[in-house]
Q: What sequence folds into this?
């Protein structure tokens, strides 16, 4: 259809708002309450336009175009009304600086005067230079406010970690309230009171810490003014550069924009273009990148133990020592613990170094204990190859969602959207979960009863008229006959559930499909783990459900694919290796990731490659400082199987080096060929040749928009029940709050407050 | 005495049930205790902040215990032009408090309303649900005496 915008005919699609058309045409319409993905609230009224043939004015953000519509976005009358609306807003907002005639010459002096208790003008406001209100005032050329000034005189809330709330600067656009409700599903912030006394606040005016806030920072990003402001950058200058990076804290692969000033990291915020996070982040991605990178506990120089004390040393000395000891050690006596928080390039070179240089088969990383690895193990034992790729957005289309334990933040948002669309959420365990409010009736299964619970559901579904969609799947007959042995009533009581509740659940699974099963690492761990995975696999096959295995580590999928290529992906072998580390079976240890720590030093020579001093460093003979994801970049495969890569955003701090470089340096000292790489790109090219999962469609190395290649899925059969091999596994610390040895939930005080004080 | 749990037991647990629950709680307890906010929120699957937003929006709800007699003076347009402000002023002077406050002895709470919809009988005063039409500043004492003397009428 055609519309006329300021006299120019424009071809537009249906369901486009006037504001969208104007923005596409490069016509400026002032807005304050319009924000990203949120539905237009038409609250601020600044975007009013006039439409020929219609009385009065219409808000451009909330008005769809119609064929032949003739819109005027600006004329003297509209401008006058907009200015009056803005003046009304400004009468309640400290505006002295906004309309000051000296404002252009004032900027040189603003650096320190911001350290004031009350913000009474822009030069005292932390948001100066980023403020949307400033932009709009500039555009509308306001030079006076024709209404008496009102100061709300509200106390500034400084009691919470990460950001402050200053209601005196709030213009009540509602962006924070709406993002908190519509997108985050938290509704921690709400409009309280009425009329001229309306404020954005919490229940009973309590601190956010006591109001169930997750501190995702979405409200801070949404705020057009300085009313919600990040404490960490309050007194910082404006950034002079922005770099895109892939968040390395968990496996979702959120894209973050890092703000820099003179090469220093100021803050991080979620990128709108991130395919997974789409402008959202969690407390880690939003507030902790800077904290982790600039943490005072970072090791910034190689350390060597001399006379019992770790002392700073040069890289040459440290690498020589390590290379010498590695060369002298017997291959079978070397144990290597890898990290799944390293980039693909890092992981590949570590495996290559271990294979070519150390000659040991004793290497394992947390990826081998991921739920994906457990699924692979089930397939390997029973002759099939489960597909591991999925899309987080598919969860949003599910009508029933079963969640075992806690979920990752973006998966949580997707679940929240599904529930808003009418999906049923069944939460099994995870009583602390922020999803709790979405679940009508959370179920707390007794420990170890998961497989009984799932098999009983299979059994009930088998009894009914419908055997899911699983008929015709290989192994159906055996599976059905095995189901007959299950006593549903006994199973229900073992799960602590009433029989009719179990039956209702089964009905739900049958009627409200598709179903998504979301599970984390704990689900496949322990003695009952393999049986859990097998029972879940079968139930999912029976009703064609979507399996959503969530690993915690940022590159668990990539590390698993690489480990597989080196034949080192087996969960049982990895558990055996961690046990051996704990029992002191290795004389030489290379600890490059999270490892179970014995109570005393058992190995003869321990090399720790980590970010901070802590954990294993106590036993270390040499500590090699590894750079963080922001400093080293690289390729990461997220939990969906999506490949994403980023360049280093900043120089490594101190003398720390990217993990891939440490591997190259070590290999060269040991006289190994094939470790001369100028950068990650060249490593990735070799990796893609060595590990076909990293090949793109054309056979060239996959680009950053690709997904991990998986083997042709053969028709997967129903699995026989599985038992856990070996003894009890040492518990690895699965916790996305841990990064490169830094326990952020303990060592970063503000996060410790959030983790400790969340009872909402 | 009815407590919150009885009210919740008899009420639905959807968002739409919130106002009813707040009204019943206010009626039963005379106010909405701060501790009740989270309990009610959990019941109707809302956040505590959202419930707090609703209950601070309406004048019918109070977070503070009310006096034995709640006196409301309508300040709607019709009452206003017939001198309701003077009646309100008389109550404030006589009782020594401002709108929204309660006397220290817990006897009287005084409130104003923007329009209670009985414009024909304005200006009027409402005491615990009893309407006193065509009030003047001279009837203020009489209304208070009535309250003090005859509890049954309230």
A:
């Amino acid at each position: 259809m055609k519309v006329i915008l300021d006299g120019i005919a424009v071809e537009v699609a249906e369901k486009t708002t006037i504001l969208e058309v104007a923005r596409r045409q490069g016509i400026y319409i002032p807005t304050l309450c319009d924000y990203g993905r949120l539905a237009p609230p038409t609250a601020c009224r600044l975007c009013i336009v006039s439409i020929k043939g219609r009385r009065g004015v219409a808000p451009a953000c909330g008005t769809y175009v119609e064929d032949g519509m003739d819109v005027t976005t600006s004329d003297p009358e509209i401008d006058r009304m907009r200015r009056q609306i803005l003046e009304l807003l400004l009468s309640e907002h400290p505006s002295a600086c906004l309309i000051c005639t000296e404002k252009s010459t004032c900027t040189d002096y603003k650096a320190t005067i911001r350290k004031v208790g009350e913000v009474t003008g822009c030069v005292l406001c932390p948001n100066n230079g980023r403020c949307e209100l400033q932009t709009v005032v500039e555009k509308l050329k306001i030079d006076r406010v024709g209404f008496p000034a009102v100061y709300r005189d509200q106390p500034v809330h400084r009691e919470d970690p990460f950001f402050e709330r200053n209601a005196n600067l709030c213009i009540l656009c509602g962006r924070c309230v709406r993002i908190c409700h519509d997108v985050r599903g938290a509704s921690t912030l709400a409009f309280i009171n009425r009329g001229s006394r309306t404020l954005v606040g919490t229940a009973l005016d309590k601190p956010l810490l006591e109001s169930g806030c997750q501190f995702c920072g979405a409200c801070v990003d949404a705020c057009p003014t300085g009313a919600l402001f990040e404490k960490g950058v309050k007194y910082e200058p404006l950034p002079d550069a922005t770099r895109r990076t892939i968040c390395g804290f968990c496996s979702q692969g959120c894209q973050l924009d890092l703000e820099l000033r003179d090469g220093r990291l100021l803050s991080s915020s979620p990128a709108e273009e991130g395919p997974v996070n789409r402008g959202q982040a969690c407390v880690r991605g939003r507030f902790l990148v800077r904290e982790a990178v600039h943490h005072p506990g970072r090791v910034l120089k190689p350390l060597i133990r001399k006379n019992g004390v770790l002392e700073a040393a040069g890289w040459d000395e440290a690498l020589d020592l390590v290379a010498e000891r590695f060369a002298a050690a017997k291959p079978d006596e070397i144990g290597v613990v890898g990290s799944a928080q390293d980039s693909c390039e890092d992981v590949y070179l570590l495996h290559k170094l271990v294979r070519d240089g150390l000659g040991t088969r004793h290497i394992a990383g947390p990826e081998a204990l991921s739920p994906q690895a457990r699924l692979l193990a089930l397939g390997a034992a029973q002759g099939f190859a489960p597909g591991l790729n999925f899309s987080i957005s598919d969860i949003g289309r599910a009508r029933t969602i079963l969640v075992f334990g806690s979920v990752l933040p973006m998966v949580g948002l997707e679940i929240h959207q599904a529930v808003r669309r009418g999906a049923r959420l069944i939460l099994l365990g995870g009583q602390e979960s922020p999803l709790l409010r979405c679940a009508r009736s959370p179920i707390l299964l007794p420990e170890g009863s998961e497989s009984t619970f799932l098999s009983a559901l299979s059994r009930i579904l088998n009894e009914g008229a419908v055997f899911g969609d699983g008929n015709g799947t290989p192994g159906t007959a055996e599976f059905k006959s095995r189901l007959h042995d299950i006593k549903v009533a006994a199973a229900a009581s073992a799960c602590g559930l009433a029989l009719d509740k179990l039956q209702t659940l089964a009905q739900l699974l049958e009627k409200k499909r598709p179903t998504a099963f979301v599970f984390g690492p704990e689900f496949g761990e322990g003695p009952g783990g393999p049986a859990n995975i097998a029972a879940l696999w079968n139930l999912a096959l029976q009703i064609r459900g979507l399996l959503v295995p969530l690993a915690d580590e940022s590159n668990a999928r990539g590390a698993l694919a690489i480990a597989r290529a080196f034949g080192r992906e087996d969960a049982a072998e990895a558990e055996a290796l961690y046990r051996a580390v704990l029992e002191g079976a290795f004389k030489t240890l290379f600890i490059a990731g999270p490892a179970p720590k014995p109570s005393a030093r058992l190995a003869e020579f321990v090399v720790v490659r980590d970010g901070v001093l802590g954990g294993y460093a106590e036993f270390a003979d040499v500590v090699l400082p590894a750079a963080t994801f922001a400093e080293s970049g690289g390729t990461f495969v997220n939990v969906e199987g999506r490949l994403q890569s980023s360049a280093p955003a900043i120089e490594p701090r101190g003398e720390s080096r990217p993990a891939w470089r440490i591997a190259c340096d070590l290999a060269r000292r040991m006289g190994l060929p094939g470790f001369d790489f100028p950068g990650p790109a060249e490593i990735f090219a070799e990796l893609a040749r060595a590990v076909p999962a990293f090949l793109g469609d054309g056979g060239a190395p996959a680009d950053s928009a690709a997904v991990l290649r998986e083997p042709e899925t053969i028709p997967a059969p129903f699995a026989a029940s599985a038992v856990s091999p070996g003894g009890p596994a040492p518990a690895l610390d699965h916790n996305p709050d841990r990064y490169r040895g830094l326990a952020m939930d303990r060592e970063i005080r503000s996060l410790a407050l959030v983790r400790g004080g969340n009872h909402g | 005495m009815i407590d919150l749990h009885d009210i919740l037991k008899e009420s639905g647990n959807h968002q739409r049930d919130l106002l009813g629950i707040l009204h019943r709680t206010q009626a039963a307890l005379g106010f909405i205790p701060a501790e009740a906010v989270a309990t009610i929120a959990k019941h109707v699957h809302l956040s505590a902040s959202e419930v707090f937003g609703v209950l601070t929006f309406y004048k019918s709800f109070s977070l503070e215990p009310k006096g034995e007699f709640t006196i409301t003076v309508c300040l709607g347009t019709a009452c206003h032009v017939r001198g309701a402000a003077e009646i309100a002023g008389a109550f404030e002077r006589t009782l020594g408090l401002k709108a929204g406050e309660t006397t220290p002895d817990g006897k009287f709470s005084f409130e104003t309303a923007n329009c209670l919809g009985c414009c024909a009988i304005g200006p009027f005063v409402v005491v615990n649900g009893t309407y006193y039409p065509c009030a003047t500043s001279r009837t203020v004492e009489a209304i208070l005496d009535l309250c003090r003397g005859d509890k049954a009428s309230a």
